[in-house]
Amino acid sequence: MHNVSAVIRLVSNLLWRKCVILLHSSWSIMKHVLLTLPIIFCFFSCTDEEIILTKGEYRIKKLLYFSDQYSGHPHSYRTYDYDRSGRVIKESFFEYPSLLLFYDTYEYISGRLHKKTSYAGQSGNPQPGSYVIYEYQEDHLTGESFYYYNGDLHTSRHYEYSDGKLVHTWSSEPGGLEHTHTYYFYNSPGNLVVETSSPDGLNIDNIINYYYDDLNRLFRKEQETGDSTLLWAEEYLYSDNHSSDSVVIQYNLDGDITYEYHYEFNTDGNLLSAYGIMAGEIRPLLHNTWMGDLLIEERRYFFPWVGLFPLTYQLSSGWHVTRYEYQKIN
After folding, report:
1. E strand or H helix at 308, and its extent?
2. I need a labelling partner for 267 at 20 to 30 A (CA). Which of 63, 107, 158, 240 fits?
3. What DSSP designation does 18 have?
4. Is-contact 221 211, C-beta < 8 A?
5. Least confident of 64-78, 138-152, 196-210, 298-312
6. How much is the pTM?
């Protein structure tokens, strides 16, 4: 999980719930909703740093976004183009029925993702914008450099490994200033047990501790300040049929339960639904429809929690629907 593929998933915001331990940060309550949504990238895989969106004999061709389950047509949609090796080379976003809003292109060298370029700014005719260059050493992604459209460097992100595991990430500015350091520590089975954050690489301002049961399953996580003051804790309860979490309980610094997240899976281990319990109120969060191992429809329920988290800014509650179209691989 901590090889280059996991790092590409992390830094590209391709959220995969199997990487939840590494990806967890000190987000607000809604992080659980986002991290457990099996969106397009639940099928994302990296093979030698290639971006491939495949599931068995099929790969995703289009995602259609609907305002609710009753809409006759999507308000927007996303398409994917592939090269002969099955790697994504273009990701485009349209306003229904056919107005191109923006797109990204992906370039590879020796089977590795080398450059991502974003085109945006003019609806119907997006122009080249920012781009990212990826750097590697042996089998690991070691750096990302983010550039403005004119070629000026904006910032860089660096990754350091030990025994094949990610142990240190940090950012740097063109002038050499380094900041936003994160350090990862592991136990003998290879589980992440401590994650520390430091703005300057010297003073720790955040600590996350991870605890595992005899089956190496995460059962508790705690976040502390740099002086070891507990901020919150989470407990993970598991069903008998799979190792994925069935219930997540969040506590505040006083030990009171602030939120519960419940997840239901089918016999194949695919997430079917999720709901939350807050202040005694049950709130639906997610409902998925599957055809075998292919996700066909995803419904996400949003509440008018304005300001709680940027991605939850909604003026009214209701289901938002994503439908998936696939292409059979020849």
Report:
1. none
2. 63
3. G
4. yes
5. 298-312
6. 0.79
